[in-house]
Amino acid sequence: MIDIKIRENINLRDKRVTVIGLGISGVEAAKLANYHGARVFASDLNSNEMVNAHAMDLMHTYHIASETGLQSEKVYDSDLWVLSPGVSKDNEIVLKAIEKGIPIVGEIEFASWFTESPIIAITGSNGKTTTSYILSEMCQAENINGVMAGNMGLPFSERVLNEILNPDENRIYILEVSSFQMEFTKHFSPAFSIYTNISPDHLDRHNSMKEYIDMKLRLANNLKKDGSIIFNDDDSILQKALSKINKKTKAFSITRKDVLFYLDNEKIVGPSKKSLLDINELRIQGKHNIANLFAAATCSHLIGITEEQISNVMKDFKGVEHRLEHVEFINNVEYINDSKATNIQSVIVAIESYRKPIVLILGGYNKGADFRLLLPHIKSSHVRDIISYGDAGGQINTELGDAVRSVQVTNLSSAVKKAHSLAAPGDIVLLSPGCASYDEFENFEVRGVFFKSIVKELVKL
């Protein structure tokens, strides 16, 4: 077995490393372990086209053995497991491995063993992807090379192996980190931990809100000795959770003025107390996006990025694909792709971002959300119609059907076509599902691309 208690003593040469899960993070973890001389075996219970392609690539290019469509006893013949984030800590095979005393780490923990570059870890229920992209653009300077990785589909293992092969002393990692990725961490230790917010999410995987928050707080507990926690002081759940952590903190806020970046009427003011720009100059709108900008700006300032660079990125940042993304105008109806909205709070942010009548598309795989929490926001917003679909369609229709006109359909394609038939000139058709995509799509990106393709087809009608 590998002793994972002391990172400095970890040596993979000729050790048996089992990688569980052959998604993109599992594949890259296998390559990284292989590079360090481990005898790697990869296993995935699924056998879809992507998984089989990954297995074939590992076999033919890297001579890494694997199995798909089953998980045999061979997975336990191992000195170390590297667990992909899609595999829960409560999974039967994980519990059996723990029983056998096999050390288990997550992919993000595993990759962190092999780099000394500083890490900025960004987590939260909403806004972490947007904040990561903003911060990455801010951290492009003469002596700083910000490199994104993590939960947005860029495996940390891939980035670390690239760094080993192409050293860069200016590299700083900007990692989007999910609660799933924190389930098996030991040494993962960021220089900065950024918390955008916390709201109920992934309660189908985490047994309680307390467990979910505890997973998020691991980023704070493992902070480097001289590191800082950057957090949203406008979030009461975060305030309470972080009050118990004895670490250096730096708040950001869109309501307070005793912070590094703040709002003065419609002006954004920086640490120099100079007005940097007017919020009407921003290309991304909404209070949530200003909070994301302030989170990234606060961290950037602390690592030495100039106000000019910060201000320029704020002004020019266009947003992230699948997050309130404009797709098309059809007969003066605007179609918006917010496929990344996989929880209730994201939907609330989305519907409160517009002042036109909204035909809202909700549905997919429910992660344990209570859709009744949307009721007061729907009643006070411009949502006129709700189209529900997929695994959660019936629940959504039952819980929200009395609030506005509501229609249930089977799948996303039908939902888009139904929304198209209900929308009138001046309306917005908004895909903001409030659910995971797994009942119909591999991930929210695939769902968003599919939505856009259906909308493009409607243009031709």
Word description of this protein:
With 461 residues, the protein is an alpha/beta fold. It has 3 domains: 7-106, Rossmann fold (3-Layer(aba) Sandwich), CATH 3.40.50.720; 115-316, 3-Layer(aba) Sandwich (UDP-N-acetylmuramoyl-L-alanine:D-glutamate ligase); 325-459, Protein-Tyrosine Phosphatase, Chain A (Alpha-Beta Complex). 34% of the residues lie in helices and 21% in strands. It is built from 15 helices and 21 strands. The protein has helices spanning 24-35, 49-62, 92-99, 107-112, 128-138, 156-165, 209-221, 236-242, 287-302, 307-316, 344-351, 375-380, 393-400, 412-422, 444-459; strands at 16-20, 39-44, 65-68, 80-83, 104-106, 119-123, 140-141, 144-150, 171-176, 192-195, 228-232, 249-252, 262-264, 267-269, 275-278, 325-330, 333-337, 358-363, 383-389, 405-408, 428-431. The protein has a 7-stranded mixed sheet with strand order 7-8-9-6-10-11-12, sandwiched between helices. Strands 16-17-21-18-19-20 form a 6-stranded mixed sheet. Helix 1 (24-35) runs parallel beside helix 2 (49-62), helix 1 (24-35) packs parallel to helix 6 (156-165) and helix 14 packs across helix 15. The radius of gyration is 23 Å and the shape is globular. The N and C termini lie far apart (62 Å). The mean pLDDT is 91.
